[in-house]
Amino acid sequence: MEYTSLYRRFRPRRFSEIRGQEHVVAALRNAVREDRVLHAYLLSGPRGTGKTTAARVLAKALNCTDVVDGEPCGTCESCVSIDAGTSFDLHELDAASNNKVDDMRDLLARVALGTPGRTKVYLLDEVHMLTAGAENALLKTLEEPPDHVIFVLATTEPHKVVETIRSRSQHLELNLLTAVELESLVRDVVAEAGLDVDEEGITHAVRAGRGSARDALSALDRVVAGGITDDETSTDELLAALAERDPGRALAALAAGIARGREPRVTGEALLGALREAFLVAMGVPPTQLPAADRDRAERFAEMVTPAVT
Ligand SMILES: [Zn+2]
């Protein structure tokens, strides 16, 4: 049997199943309920927080034959085909690999055509990757979209989306999940899927997720497949080396990471992330997505390097 990743298997199929993004879910669901859905939404947020999932649920709600209180039924022909990725009412395009003006013209030429359901939803992922020519072509359509068409533009970098496109769409921001939300997601998936995962495995998945549902469930996949790969050792060692001003220990930690196949860039990014966490903890504003284990580490490091206040 083909293995389906936990992230795909437990991808939310209704607005109420999307976690930690209440403001976004409420905006979209209310718009469906009150029949005042706009022609363009810009969904921004870190990777793995549910941008395309929200767009798919919206597409279902807009084509479902049995919408109840703004939620798609999940069982009608339209809902089933959107879940299966076979619906003609939802067109997904990765703007990163289709970023040329000709790609956009091809897409927009079809916009005027009809669609089997009530509403055709175009989901353009990584929309900030479009070239200037493609952006201009899209802009023209956003200015006068056909009635039955809705654009959902998704991006991890909203500041790179031109102002003219941003101003023609409602901008909804998804955020990283808090450690508490992520842990409850991981625990629910473990229980529902009947996985044999211990507390250490759950903690590992939450830490690896760093606020991203997709990253946490990918880490859980790896825990299930073969146990835990300890990605944190070199970061812990580097922090200790910094605190003790010990260059030899730092170089040894870096070398150990490389020996385990960890790219120096990844180690560097993890170190910067840990330093930022320590700084925020020292300032009394720990990030909400920080799990207890990372918070403890940040506190220990902050204590070691911060001059005592007398
Ligand atoms: Zn339905």
Could you characterize what this model shows?
With 310 residues, the chain is α/β, with parallel strands linked by helices. It has three domains: 6-173, P-loop containing nucleotide triphosphate hydrolases (Rossmann fold, 3-Layer(aba) Sandwich), CATH 3.40.50.300; 177-229, Helicase, Ruva Protein, domain 3, CATH 1.10.8.60; 230-310, no CATH class. Helix content is 52%, strand content 9%. The chain is built from 14 helices and five strands. Strands 2-3-4-1-5 form a five-stranded parallel β-sheet, covered by helices on one side. Helix 6 (132-143) links the parallel strand 3 and strand 4. Helix 11 (233-243) runs antiparallel to helix 12 (247-259). The chain starts with 5 loop residues before the first helix and ends in a 5-residue tail after the last helix. Bound molecules: zinc ion (ZN). Residues 64-66, 72-73, 76, 78-79 line the site of zinc ion. Belongs to the DnaX/STICHEL family.
